[in-house]
Specification:
By secondary structure, the protein is mainly alpha-helical. It contains ten helices and no strands. It has one domain: Orthogonal Bundle (Hypothetical protein af1432). It starts with 10 loop residues before the first helix and ends in a 6-residue tail after the last helix.
Length: 227
C-alpha cells in the first residue's frame, strides 16, 4: 500500500502484468484497424487512472485492460476460442481462479454490441469499460473511426445512407453505414453510458470535441464553412 492508501499490485502480480503487456503487444502490434497495441496501452493507462480515483482493484483493472481485445469479435475469427485461450493464459501464469473468473467476466461483458450489451456487475468492470469507451471518443476516437473505416472499406460519408436508430448486434456489425454515421450510431452515445464519475468527467471534453468536429465536417461537406 502506498502513502496515499492505494493498494499496489504485489511482486507476483507485477510479473503477470509485464507478461500480459508483452502478450498484448505481440498480438496487436501490427493490427491495422485502430485496435492495435497503442489502443491497449491507452486503455490500460486510463484504467489505472480511473481505478485509483474510484478505489477499484488495480491489478484486476490493469490485467483486464491489457487482455481485453484478445477475444474481440472484430479481431478474431472465433471469439469463444479467444476467451478460452485468455483464461488458460492466466492460469498458466499463476493468476488465481477467483481473479481469472473476474477478468473473464469483464471481458465477456465489455463490448458495446450495438447498445445492447449487459451492465457490468463489478466496479472493476465498470472502470475498464469506461477506459475502453473513452478511447473511442474525442480526438483519438475521431482518428480511430477513420482508420477503422478505411480498413473495412467503409465510406467516409454518404448522405443517402441513413443513421440507424436501433440495431441488433448483427445489424451493428453488418457494415451498412459510414464513418460519420458511426458517430451518431455509437460514439455520441457513449458519454451517457459511462459508469464512473471519473469516466464521465474525462468524457465531457472529449464528447464536446467530437460534436465540434461533426459540426465543422457538415459545414465543409456543404461548402458553407467560412461564410
Amino acid at each position: 500500500m502506498t502513502e496515499t492508501g492505494r493498494i499496489e499490485p504485489n511482486g507476483q502480480q507485477e510479473a503477470v502484468l509485464r507478461a500480459a503487456a508483452a502478450l498484448a503487444r505481440q498480438e496487436h502490434e501490427h493490427e491495422g484497424s485502430g485496435h492495435d497495441w497503442w489502443h491497449i496501452y491507452r486503455v490500460t493507462e486510463l484504467a489505472k487512472r480511473i481505478a485509483a480515483e474510484e478505489g477499484a482493484d488495480p491489478f484486476i483493472c490493469e490485467l483486464t485492460a491489457l487482455l481485453h481485445d484478445l477475444a474481440d469479435e472484430k479481431l478474431v475469427d472465433d471469439p469463444a476460442a479467444g476467451l478460452r485461450r485468455t483464461s488458460a493464459w492466466m492460469k498458466e501464469h499463476g493468476v488465481s481462479a477467483e481473479d481469472n473468473a473476474h477478468v473473464m467476466d469483464i471481458i465477456g461483458t465489455l463490448s458495446f454490441k450495438g447498445g445492447s450489451g449487459h451492465p457490468m456487475s463489478t466496479l472493476e468492470g465498470r472502470v475498464v469499460q469506461d477506459a475502453d469507451r473513452l478511447d473511442a471518443i474525442g480526438a483519438i476516437g475521431i482518428a480511430r473511426t477513420f482508420v477503422y473505416s478505411g480498413k473495412k472499406g467503409r465510406p467516409m460519408y454518404d448522405p443517402e445512407i441513413p443513421v440507424r436508430q436501433e440495431m441488433t448486434p448483427e445489424e451493428y456489425r453488418s457494415g451498412n453505414d459510414t464513418a460519420i454515421n458511426h458517430f451518431h450510431e455509437k460514439l455520441l452515445k457513449l458519454k451517457d453510458l459511462l459508469n464512473t464519475d471519473s469516466g464521465r468527467r474525462i468524457a465531457d471534453s472529449r464528447h464536446a470535441f467530437m460534436k465540434e468536429f461533426l459540426e465543422r465536417f457538415e459545414r465543409e461537406w456543404n461548402g458553407s464553412d467560412g461564410m
